[in-house]
DNA sequence: TTGTACGCGTTATCAG
DNA sequence: CTGATAACGCGTACAA
């Protein structure tokens, strides 16, 4: 009933465990006939080598981990999709860990994973704290780490990002070109390096157009829809912005709800653009202008970097930094009708 | 530099490995002072028990697997979210496997997982084949399996589903009540049991209203957007349906694109409703009427069933079948304006 | 309270 | 070509 092991299989065949083992691993000479006999019997008894034992033996778990803030999110789920693709191609298994933007959890996950459970980690950080020393400590254990999208700049590791600064600059410039002069910048976490990069693009685009940067137009938001509706409701009433640049998708979504409530005509009264991986942006009412990140490719690229490292003979901890390009897609929400 | 093991740690402390081991595992009496000394040193050297070894020792991997067709999909990503929540609460790790609706891959994953790598499996099937004998074979190994949403009826395992039949009946009835008489039913895979259940609800609602069931109004679609646009473009031109009941979200999305192209006014010329887990259904143009499945809860429930089984002392293979309720949310796409 | 010794299931090495 | 043996790192009887 329960799993059979190599010893029992060997007994059934009147062979030694070593011979049976050889039948499964490619190398080591073995008689063709006996090999076939072994494999046949294995199939019949549904035997497969126990992974925990093999892993212990050669210190390889053939598993990698992905740590992300959330999964019910277009960007991250597509990125994971990309990672999975590469992991599978390499014959690796994939474990996922969700931090829900909880720094404690991030630390806990990272610590747990340094036990031989996984051979490498791909991660998009919470950014909820400034003390990343725990990471430096762990980094010494030399298990490869690759950041994507949301990174800690003070941690020495490979990174996959997009051209956030340029995209933000273009998006903001686009709003300005469409006649916006009071553009709010919506952000969840200003500590994140990508938050900073994106804001810098926004700032510089304003400056380039001779518009002042106003601290009040930078709006700190949340990850909870309810809170965001409150915040944005107040802001839109008080400031009456004519442009909205949302650094993440959910803030644009919240803006849509608020505008619908306030009877603001998106695209005319107020123009909205955001970073987003939403496939159906063009089906929204009105169609949403987006900066679309290549989520799937980012996941693939992060995984490729990781496996390049895992498959390399030498243990040089080569740091790679790959930048992929986002695409600015203009739709009704910034054009109007 | 590399990971330290229990032996080395013991040496540093002039203790035996057993004592050190005891410091980590709760039971077995141990001097409080020595325990603290050990833990302190462990922290300093960043020691953590090797999981592969522990797992081999007590034959527990503390890992479960989720096998789903895809992850870049609102329904599945939320379901995984629910599973993760429960897994984490139970101190378990989570591995994910994506079949991309490829039956071969499903078989391959299932086989690989019966090596002690995971203790249980949660799965939503591809439904691409009719021969599930491979599963029966594996089932004998008695590693717990829980299906959710998409199941194989001929496999004896616990299941979490929604009231597909009733929802479909109500949705179809709603379309009829709104005056539709030529309602197409869009489906990707008629082999799937949920495909059948949903279609039966559709059929029975037609009959209850005295409308004929027309074979031609059941449209076989695909998972690829391009193909669906072709198929639906042809169908909408030829049949001129006044109602669309899409068994999955992506088919409603494709319908939207086609209607926009053909200048059909959704909600008036043609009413659309579908199964969907799209958060922002109300922001679409027009707002999409949906049958919303409790994806997150389904994932949680599936995981709860699995852990109830894993944590139970006796190995009785109790089969549970939980049915959660979907919610019918009427919006503009079936109301018109 | 602590130490000794064995086994979990594999596989590489070394003999034969 | 095949068999015996040791070792991967840990945890637990059992002994002290």
Automatic annotation (TrEMBL), chains A, B:
The keyword Transcription regulation applies. It comes from the Bacteria. InterPro entries: HTH_LacI, LacI/GalR-like_sensor, Lambda_DNA-bd_dom_sf, Peripla_BP_I. Keywords: DNA-binding, Transcription, Transcription regulation. The keyword Transmembrane does not apply. Residues 4-58 form the HTH lacI-type domain. One of its GO terms (molecular function) is transcription cis-regulatory region binding. Pfam families: LacI, Peripla_BP_3. This is LacI family transcriptional regulator. It comes from Pararcticibacter amylolyticus.
């Amino acid at each position: 009933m329960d799993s059979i092991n190599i010893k029992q299989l060997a007994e059934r065949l009147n062979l030694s465990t070593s011979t049976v083992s050889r039948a499964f691993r490619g190398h080591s000479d073995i008689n063709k006939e006996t090999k076939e006999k072994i494999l046949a019997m294995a199939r019949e008894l549904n035997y497969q080598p126990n992974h925990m034992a093999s892993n212990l033996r050669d210190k390889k778990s053939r598993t990698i981990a992905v740590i992300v803030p959330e999964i019910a999110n277009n960007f991250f789920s597509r990125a994971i999709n990309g990672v999975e693709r590469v992991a599978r191609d390499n014959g690796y298994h994939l474990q996922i860990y969700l931090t829900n933007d909880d720094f404690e959890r991030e630390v806990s996950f990272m610590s747990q994973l340094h036990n031989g459970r996984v051979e490498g980690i791909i991660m998009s950080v919470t950014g909820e704290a400034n003390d990343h020393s725990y990471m430096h400590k762990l980094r010494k254990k030399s298990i490869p780490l690759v950041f994507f999208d949301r990174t800690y700049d003070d941690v020495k590791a490979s990174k996959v990002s997009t051209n956030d600064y340029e995209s933000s600059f273009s998006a903001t410039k686009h709003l300005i070109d469409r006649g916006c002069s009071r553009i709010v910048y919506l952000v969840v976490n200003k500590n994140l390096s990508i938050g900073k990069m994106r804001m810098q693009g926004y700032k510089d685009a304003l400056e380039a157009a001779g518009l002042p940067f106003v601290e009040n137009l930078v709006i700190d938001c949340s990850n909870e829809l309810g809170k965001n509706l409150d915040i944005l409701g107040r802001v839109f009433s008080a400031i009456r912005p004519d442009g909205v640049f949302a650094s993440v998708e959910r803030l644009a979504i919240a803006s849509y709800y608020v505008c619908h409530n306030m009877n603001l005509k998106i695209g005319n009264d107020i123009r909205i653009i955001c970073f987003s991986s939403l496939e159906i942006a063009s089906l929204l009412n009105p169609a949403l202008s987006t900066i679309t990140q290549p989520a799937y490719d980012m996941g693939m690229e992060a995984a490729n970097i990781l496996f390049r490292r895992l498959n390399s003979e030498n243990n040089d901890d080569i740091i790679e930094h790959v930048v992929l390009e986002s695409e600015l897609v203009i739709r009704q929400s910034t054009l109007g009708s």
